[in-house]
Amino acid sequence: MQLGTLALGALLLCGGALAAPAGIIDLQANRQPLRAAKNPAAIALIPADYHFAVPGKLTVAVASENSPPLALFAEDNKTPIGSDPDIARLVADSLGLELNLVPTSWEDWPLGITAGKYDAAIFNIAVTRLRKTRFDFATYRVDTLGFYVKSTSKITAINRPQDVAGLRVIVGSGTNQENILLGWDQQNRANGLPAVQPIYVTDDAAANLSIQSGRADAYFGPHSTGAYKAALTGKTKMVGIGPSVAYVAVTSKKGNGLVNAINAAINGVIVSGEYASVLDRWGEHDEKVESSVINPPGIGD
Questions:
Q1: Does residue 105 carry a pLDDT above 80?
Q2: Do the beta carbons of residue 199 and residue 168 sit within 8 Å?
Q3: Secretion signal: which residues (predicted)?
Q4: What structural domains and CATH numbers belong to the chain?
Q5: Beta carbons within 10 angstroms of residue 181's beta carbon
Q6: CB within 8 Å of 226: residues ≥ 6 apart
Q7: How far apart are the first and last CA of the chain?
Q8: Strand extents, DSSP E, the chain
Q9: What angle, rounded to 10 degrees, do the helices at 274-281 and 83-94 form?
């Protein structure tokens, strides 16, 4: 994606009201990293027996696919930028560590964390009951899910299970939005309504092509990425939000104690203001949290 300035004019439909436009995202300016000071209190919480994946560095898995504004590559096609890399840098700085960002696939981060390949993943990962059995979480954002359709689509609203009956919906495999969609489909079938057809694509380009060509009726995924694309191209529009809001969290291996230091690091930059600067410059001001929480109630609890 070419660097430049993006006007985010997409509106968030929530509770029957429209929020204000998200403003301007200057990708060229946002390539410049935001930094944080060392946080002695957070550093003191790093377990004495913890071994970092790369000594002296915080190794963080981030998305390898362009998912702006969460993660994308700069114009050199190799430098990760976006709100998730920015949060990773603030955490690393706070812990007195060099940041080692590793772009990878969604399927790779769970095994990578479990095997010690990554210290953490910052990947728009929502907290769920099942995931908490294997990982620890320190929250940093609210996760709002949105339904998007082609701008010329006759679909005007998707807010209830019956609204997706008979539709072809693009959704990510193994995601919370997939669980929601399949749950709605189960309710519809029990009520005699037509089945939904989940469509799984390999990348964002394939998803866009499916929507624009008519092979898919809707896309269901993170609001921030959907709003970004809608504002950038004008070819899609938001027609509804998911039925529940979850927390997105920095994810680490269960029980190794690193989550306490990460949590303290996030709360430190919330207080000092760098956290708000990150979300503001990426148009995610409506997804801020007031404080980071360790392993809060998640989807399925």
A1: yes
A2: yes
A3: 1-19
A4: 35-143+247-287 (3.40.190.10), 145-245 (3.40.190.10)
A5: 24
A6: 10, 146, 148, 219, 236, 238
A7: 38
A8: 5-8, 13-14, 17-18, 23-26, 57-63, 72-73, 80-81, 98-104, 120-121, 135-143, 145-150, 168-170, 197-199, 218-222, 236-241, 246-253
A9: 170
The winner for highest mean pLDDT among 67-71, 190-194, 199-203 is 190-194
Instruction: Report pLDDT for 95.
Output: 98
The rounded distance, in Å, linking the Cα atoms of 289 and 205 is 31
pTM: 0.79
Name the phi and psi angles at 145, rounded to 5. -105, 140
- What amino acid is encoded at 295 in this protein? N
Decide: 71 and 27 in contact? Cβ < 8 Å. Answer: no
Instruction: Return d(Cα 47, Cα 261) in angstroms, integer.
Output: 8
Per-residue three-class SS string for 215-261 = CCCEEEEEHHHHHHHHHHHCCEEEEEECCCCEEEEEEEECCCCHHHH
Give φ, ψ of 78 to 5 degrees. -145, -15
Inform me whether the pLDDT recorded for 147 exceeds 90. yes
Please list, in sequence order, all residues whose beta carbon lies within 8 angstroms of the beta carbon of residue 292, skipping any fewer than 6 positions away.
138, 139, 140, 263, 266, 267, 270
Three-state secondary-structure class, residue 128: strand
